[in-house]
Amino acid sequence: MTAPTTPSAPIDPTSTDAWASLEAHNLELTGSLREWFDADPERAQRFSADAADLHVDLSKNLVTAETLELLQQLAREVGVEAHRDAMFAGAHINTTEDRAVLHTALRRPAGASPALEVDGQQIDEDVHETLQRVYDFADSVRSGEWTGVTGKRIETVVNIGIGGSDLGPVMVYEALKPQAQAGLSARFLSNIDPTDAYETTRDLDPETTLVIVASKTFTTQETLTNARLVREWLLQGLRENAGLTVEQEKEAIAKHFVAVSTALDKVEAFGIDPKNAFGFWDWVGGRYSVDSAIGTVLATVLGPDTFEELLAGFHAMDEHFATAPAEKNVPLLMGLLNIWNVNFLEAETHAVLPYSQYLHRFPAYLQQLTMESNGKATRRDGSLVTTETGEVFWGEPGTNGQHAFYQLIHQGTRIIPADFIAFATPNHALADGEQDVHELFLANFFAQTKALAFGKSAEEVRAEGTEGALVAAREFSGDRPTTSIMAPKLTASVLGQLIALYEHITFVQGVVWGINSFDQWGVELGKQLAKGLAPAVAGDEQAISAEDSSTSALIRYYHEHRQQ
Ligand code: F6P
């Protein structure tokens, strides 16, 4: 089998014909969303597309058919399709780390044909073998066969991880919480602030707690420190409550600690039995890993069936991205729209506003996915980018955001493209009278994108009886771009589809900008410096004096104010 080829050096997007045409088009573009909708009764239909179970309406973006055509031309000129195919085939598109990027392989169904072999590894076999081990473990915890060292059933699973080893699992858990097995719940510990470990464990019973240490590298300071803290808490609690002896400690760790990592040797060195460890591979980036063994906490608490459904949802979106024609390819179009908004309309941020409380951690999850991927200023060949890249992603669930920051989106001076996400049916049965509440909630969802698109003119404000200076204050310009994403219900499959949608949007943007979306060198310097600062923080006067004046003064402030 020939090795998949990595696409050649990045093409400067600003040097393409499409870019020049887009610039000219932007200058010539006239009209408004009001006018465009009036002129074309089919606009919503024309600018909508379905991807698996997601219905995506792009019509309230500041684009015409010509804009979208030119953006697709740009995608062709910079080779988005070739890159996509190279990624799916296992080419080493993560060039700075010389790695394949194969998170899409994590959700290929068992027996997919032809089988995927990359760098001599039978990918499908390895993925499904690991999944089976994760499911067997999950089933044994769920059935009560796996108990703590004192024979009690596990009631709480604490996932210790950070970044991709935390944000994905916590987001999915919060989204699908109604599917958690009765009597079993999850908690997530990530911050190295000792308060986080304290708050996570303080009301737990060590006898019924299982800990998953999740770390791709198993070197991350925060995770290993928290794992040590929790190990101490657990052993201490078992000593006090259950009379655990020193001889029983090893067995206690074996019954209460499992690990997920690509570095199984380091797991063992930490004291966790390798047979209680689940692996994954260097071709899975941390922020793309929720569908790997990093999801063990999810398979355990929500169940293997739910996890399988999640994976099927991811795969459905992968299929769409890999095969849908460009003009109906939702991740491609949304990625290109982001390019339009950032590079031509000069948007600096992008809001993601889920109208579902269950998705309350989705924006936080997307922050790592998008910003750790595309927050870069050098291209794949080491040259500097020629455009702005990585916009700031942020958001909160509606309607809370409406009463906080929507003012700025509606009437501020900045353009803030926003994705609105909603579901026709809520995830739990509605009691009498609750259907009205759900409809009220959805009415808010529909109203916001309408207000942002069409605004309210001065004449309309006056017609309502307002006069004088208040007219301007109550006027809404409209033409504020939004995308609406709807699905029948927030099922595990739909959630998988949504995550994969944003993975692929991020990918498209990275290819256009010519950057490697799969490394994260930018987080290294802070980590290195934190290690180097340890002696100064511990009080070594010579080390403190060697620091710059600001850092040494801050460390001195700490020493002067800390309570012993
Ligand atoms: O923030 C840097 C980073 O390497 C992320 O990419 C990753 O998700 C996180 O740290 C955690 O890393 P690990 O899973 O190796 O502990």
From TrEMBL:
The active site is at E372 (proton donor), H403, K527. Pfam families: PGI (PF00342). The keyword Repressor does not apply. Keywords: Cytoplasm, Gluconeogenesis, Glycolysis, Isomerase. Belongs to the GPI family. Catalyzes the reversible isomerization of glucose-6-phosphate to fructose-6-phosphate. This is Glucose-6-phosphate isomerase. It comes from Brachybacterium tyrofermentans.
